Amino acid sequence: MEKKLLSLAVAAAVASPLSVMADVPEVSGFIDVIYTATDEASDPVTGTNPTEGKFTVDGEVDFVGQLNERAAVRVDVDVMDTLGSGSSASLEQARFDWSLTDGITLIGGLFNNPVGWEGHDAPDLYQTTHGLIWNTLDAQTNEGGNNLIGLAIAADLELVSVIVALTDDIGGVDEENSFALVLGANPVESVEVELGYVTQDNDSGTCTSIADLSTCGMGNHLNLNATVTQEVAGLGLTGAVEIQMPDEIVDQAYMLMANATVGDTGFGGTLRLEEVSFDVAGVDDLERTTLAGTYEAQDNLFFLLEWSNTDNGTEDFDLVTFEVVGLF
Fold it and tell me: Rounded CA gap, 297 and 302, in Å?
């Protein structure tokens, strides 16, 4: 369920008559069940841990309506069952795609942030949890789930792909707008590289930890990432590197990821290494190591086991989860 704007943009060469009726919307989605075995970060000073030994259930339902040969609308609805709070739902995307010419599409509404390497939804991930860079981008965006509201132009220019967007300020600052630019290329068949840049007003606060990023502005962000895929001795190998360089709060952040799938067995594994260096006096670097194993039991039914350790320079925390993802 790839969510990149270019892959979702409508690209038709010939406009259809206005009298053409819209197709019945296509419906897809997924469910995401997670059992938390260990969550040391949630250990209280006294009493019991509120998350260990608990299940959480989330899901998503996506609707795509083809209005005609050149235009479509998409609505993604996230459904959550929060511990102790009952069920709730929110919009992840609500957008139109209008193919202006072959390879150039206008996109408007609520859409996924195109800046950054990692996908948004459980089926897009190589492990259960999002990485630290994605989390910082999510914390900076005023809309839920690392999303933006505005207009974007997505262009496939053969040698490069380009996304240019004008949105509400990603932090929700009044009377301000953000500008985003994403350039992507495939210099060789097995390599993808991407450069992303997004502006932001950064006068909203002073951060002392990653938990405060939702109330602080990191300013303009530069993001560089690259992905390499290879088939070696029956193994499907994927490697990725991502570097984030904001103006404020975070000095820089990096992510290294290696994934291997074993032929047609359905088994795979992922190692992810991350670090966030803060530009705040007295705040240590944040480091995280993640190991995940995956198994595709049936078509569209996946099992994942993840262990991660997060070190904030003073103490470290283990997290162990078991996840089931089903797609429809």
Answer: 6
